[in-house]
Design brief:
Length: 350
């Protein structure tokens, strides 16, 4: 295992391996870039099979955060940390305190947030030993209520705004009434996206492997159920992946009926070449990290002290960013993902 030769190294500024004997902490903090601001990214806890897998995950995700924040115009760099361990078995207050101390030693170059395997209560424990974790406080919600650090409402609003931009670009219409949308995964983001689309008059097709979530969507939105293995091929205008990554591959792309793919899931393309496969089929793809930036915008707002109106305005700018990507991709005959990468790199590297 080597950092410099890892395929996802991509010039990371700093990669720190952290160990603390008493608590058993083994963690890796990857700082891809601090050029635009502190490297903000989630603290993931996962029972990795080996250290090389943990390192690769941290590097890949940290780089992704640099691109996402740069494209969203945020004063943030990109980072990520991973704790090697099973969150159900190995997570203790001592381990979380030790992780906080490891983050503190970086002096604010890295700022941690919630991710899979960690929750707000864990961040609150880490905050006892570091000032550099975020997403802890209750704050005004986009709907006027009070809510916790959960970024899903902002992510869903961003995806909804992105679908509007894609529909305008592809079909030349503003109105979503009667638009057919297939949502893969009606969890935290997918359910809220379904609410927004339903209120706008769209017809929904939904799929979920967790029956209570599926039934809630059928009941609340009169949605049509689709089996998980066929949702990508549903007879719709828009396919919105909101569950897993790598759903666009050699098998699914030829089966798509949708003219637009626009959803919240991270890393939707199985491989970079699948961006070109979508373009060649005439499918308009909203690059995942451009359309799902609402969550990081929301987390960043907490640091900047921005109110709900400020968050909403920034999230709604995702529509304009996507429109610029769609127009450039069309005029240059390029996959949208490539155009998004170039825009992000221009902001990251000048
Ligand atoms: P979630 O766990 O709340 O919801 C995911 C849903 O997908 C669950 O209901 C789950 O049962 C379902 N699911 C899992 N496998 C499935 C399958 N094969 N077919 C159909 N449904 C399946 O997660 P979430 O927070 O809503 O996030 C959804 C996606 O969006 C993830 O890929 C996440 O990384 C990404 N994302 C989320 C946010 C956020 O703010 N929560 C921000 C950016 C990106």
């Amino acid at each position: 295992m080597s950092v410099f030769t890892d395929p996802d190294f991509d010039g990371h500024e700093q990669v720190v391996h952290c160990h603390e004997r008493a608590s058993g902490l083994h963690a890796i903090i990857a700082i891809h870039s601090t050029r635009l601001g502190p490297a903000l990214g989630g603290i993931r806890m996962y029972p990795y099979a080996d250290e090389a897998g943990a390192l690769n995950d941290a590097l890949r995700l940290a780089r992704g955060m640099s691109y996402k924040s740069a494209l969203a115009g945020l004063p943030l760099g990109g980072g990520k940390s991973v704790i090697l361990g099973d969150p159900r078995r190995d997570k203790t207050p001592a381990l979380l305190h030790a992780m906080g101390e490891a983050i503190e030693r970086l002096g604010g170059r890295y700022v941690g947030a919630e991710d899979s395997g960690t929750a707000v209560a864990d961040l609150q424990l880490m905050a006892q030993t570091t000032a550099h974790v975020t997403g802890l406080q209750d704050k005004p919600g986009l709907d006027g209520g009070v809510r916790s650090g959960d970024p899903s409402p902002a992510t869903a609003l961003g995806v909804f705004t992105g679908i509007r931009a894609a529909v305008r670009h592809r079909f030349g219409r503003e109105d979503l009434a009667g638009l057919r949308v297939a949502i893969q995964g009606v969890g935290s983001v997918g359910h809220r996206l379904a609410q927004l689309l339903h209120a706008a008059g769209a017809t929904l097709f939904v799929s979920d492997v967790w029956a209570p979530n599926l039934e809630r969507a059928l009941r609340e939105f009169g949605a049509e159920p689709v089996t998980p293995d066929r949702i990508h091929a549903a007879p719709v205008d828009v396919y919105a992946p909101c569950a897993l990554g790598a759903v666009l591959d050699d098998v699914t792309i030829p089966q798509l009926c949708a003219a637009i793919v626009a959803g919240a899931a991270n890393n939707q393309l199985a491989q970079a070449r699948h961006g070109e496969a979508l373009r060649a089929r005439g499918v308009l793809y909203a690059p995942d990290y451009a359309i799902n930036a609402g969550g990081i915008i929301d987390v960043c707002a907490e640091r900047l002290g921005e109110d709900a109106a400020g968050v909403r305005a920034r999230v709604e700018r995702i529509g304009a960013t996507l429109t610029a990507i769609f127009e450039q991709a069309e005029s240059e005959g390029l996959p949208t993902q490539l155009v998004a990468d170039r825009l992000a790199e221009r902001r990251l590297y000048g």
